Amino acid sequence: MTTTEEPQEHAIAKTVDKAQYLVCVVLVVVGAFLIYDAVTLEAGFAKVDPVGPKMFPIVIGVVLILLAIVLAVAIPRGSVGEADAGEDVDPNMPSDWRTVGMLVGVFVATILLVKPLGWAITGALLFAGAATILGSRHYVRNIAIGAVLSVGSFYAFYSGLGIPLPAGILDGIL
Amino acid sequence: MENLDWLIQGFEQAATPMNLLYAVIGVLLGTAVGVLPGIGPAMTVALLLPITYNVSPSAAFIMFAGIFYGGMYGGSTTSILLNTPGESSSVITAIEGNKMAKAGRAAQALATAAIGSFVAGTIGTILLAAFAPAISRFAVTLGAPSYLAIMLFALVAVTAVLGSSKMRGAISLFLGLAIGVVGIDFLTGQPRATFGIPQLSDGIDIVIIAVAIFALGEALWVAAHLRRRPSEVIPVGRPWMGRQDWQRSWKPWLRGTAFGFPFGALPAGGAELPTFLSYVTEKRLSKHPEEFGKGAIEGVAGPEAANNASAAGTLVPMLSLGLPTNATAAVMLTAFVSYGIQPGPTLFEKEPLLIWTLIASLFIGNFLLLVLNLPLAPLWAKLLRTPRPYLYAGILFFATLGALAVNVQPLDLALLLVFGLLGLMMRRFGLPVLPLIIGVILGPRIERQLRQSLQLADGNWSGLFTEPVAIIVYVLMAALLLMPLVLKLMHRSEETLLIVEDDRDQQEKAAQS
Questions:
Q1: How far apart are CA B3 and CA B25, in angstroms?
Q2: Which residues, at least 6 apart from B156, have a Cβ–Cβ distance to it below 8 Å?
Q3: Model ipTM?
C-alpha cells in the first residue's frame, strides 16, 4: 500500500525505529557481496563491450551501499517506513515474532524432509503444522485437510501436469 | 480493418468449449482470491505458472485474463463488505462502499461496482485493442537505444512515482536488480553471484521470487499481526440496483473509465491516482454532495470503474512493448517467457493469434464476471469468513507446492524461504514490493539491451543517443524526477478534499491514500 508518512510521524512524535538498521545491514551485505563477486570476474575482452560483465554488479553494489548510508542517516532523524496494512493485519498489535519463528521452523523442516519423506507426507505436515501454529486447535481436522490437499496435489501434478513431485518413502504406494 | 479480422479469429479461438471452461475457472478463481485476504491476482498467476508446462499457451492466457479481471472485482467486494481494502487501488472504494453497506445498501454498492467494472473493463479492452497494435507497430521501428531508454523510463517511473518514499522505492528496486544479476553473464559466459551453486547459473526462477515475495512474505507478515477476531462481515443478498441508482451511476462509470485507462497505460500510472481523481470529481459534480462520506453511490461507481479501466490500461505497455507496470502483468510476462515467447514490440507480429485470443478472452472474462458474480455475491461474502489459520496455512502450502513444481528440488524451497523473509522484512519496513519485481525482470533485459546497443555502435557510448525517441524519453525521465516537487505542492489540497468533516475513520483513510 502506498501511504504518506507525514501524519504517522506527527502521531508518534518522532520515535526512532531502530529496527530499520537491519535493512541497512542487508543492503551492505548484498552490495558488498556483489562487488566482491564482480571483482573476481574476468574483464570483458572486446572493445565493443565497454560495459563488460563487471559493471552492472559493481554499480548495483555501490548504489546499495550508498542507499544503506542514506537510510542510516535518515533513521535517527525519524524516518519510518509505513508498515503494510491489510485485511487481516491488526497494526495496533505488537509484532508476534514467536509465531513467525515457529512457521519458519516448520518451513525449514519441510525443506529437509521433502526428499526423504515425499511431498504427500511433508505437505500434510506443513499444512497441519502451520494451521496449528496460527491458532487452529482442531488437530485431527488440521491433519486431515493437510493430507487431502497434499495427496490430491501429488496426483494432480503427476497425472494432470506430468510433474512428478517427490514420492519419498511412499514410493510405490502412491 | 486487419485488427478486426484478428479479433474475430481471437474470439473463435477463445470460444471453444474447452477454452470457455478455462475462462470460467479463471474468473471464479480470480474473484475468489480477490475476495480472500492475503492473496492477490499476481500471486495466483504466479502459483499457476506450473500449468504452463502442460497446457496450451492460449488456454493458459485465457485463464490468466480471467484471474486478472476477477481479482480486481473481488477486491472491491472485500472493501465494501469488510472496510479493509487489500490493495491500495480499492482504498477509495471502501470509503463510500462500506458506508453504503452499513446503511443496508450493500446490494446496491456491489451491483454498481460489478456493473461499473464491466463497463470500464469492456471500454478499456476496446481501447486496448485499438491502441496496442498501433503502438507496437511504432515500437518495432525503434532501435535498441530507444528501447533501452523506454525500459529505463519504466524502471524510474515505477520507483519514483508510485509509493511515498523514493528512498524506499530505490532500495527495493536495487535489491531486485541485485537478484537479477545472479546467473551466467550472457556475453562472457561467466557465472555471477551464484555462490558456486550450479543450479543458480540460469538465474533465480522468477516464479520462486514472485511466490516468495507475494505469498510467503505476506503470510509471514500477517502471522506476526493476525487479528484474533476477524473483522465483521456485512451479510448481503443478491446485488441489484433501482432506477435511481442507475441514473446516478452511469456517468461516474464513464468518467471513471476516462480517468483510469490513460493512467494505467502510462508506465507510471498505477490505479491509486485515477481512483482518487474520480472520487474527487464525483464529489464535486454530484447533486447529492451531502451524501458523500455517508455512502454515496457515485463514490463507489466512479473509482471502481477507474480501477478496472486502469487494469486494462496496464495491458497496453505489456502487450505492445513487453513492459510490465503492475505486479500481475509482470508475472503474466514471465508466463510468455516460459513458453519461449519473447515479450517485446514484436509480439503482435510474431504471435498475433495468441495475443488476439488473449484480448478476446478479456472481453469474455469481463462478461462472465458480470453474469457469474451478481448471483454469486452472497457466496463470496461467506468466503470472507474462512477461518484464518486455514487460509494462511493454505497459502503457505500452495506457495511451497508452486515453488517445488518449478524444478522439483529442495534448493528452490530454501530460496523461497530466503526471499520470503526478504518479503517479510520489506512489509515490516514499508519497502514497496513492485519495484523489486520489476527490477528482477527488467534488470537483466536492460543490461543485455545496453551491451548489445554498444556492440552495434562499436563500443561507442554516444551510440546510445543517436535516436530521437531515445533522447525524448531521457528528457521525459528527467522531468518525471522533478515532478514530485510539483506534486508535493498539490498534495495538501488533495488531502483536504478527501477529508469529510467530523469523521475520524474518514480522515485515517485520507491519510493512508
A1: 28
A2: B477, B480, B481
A3: 0.85
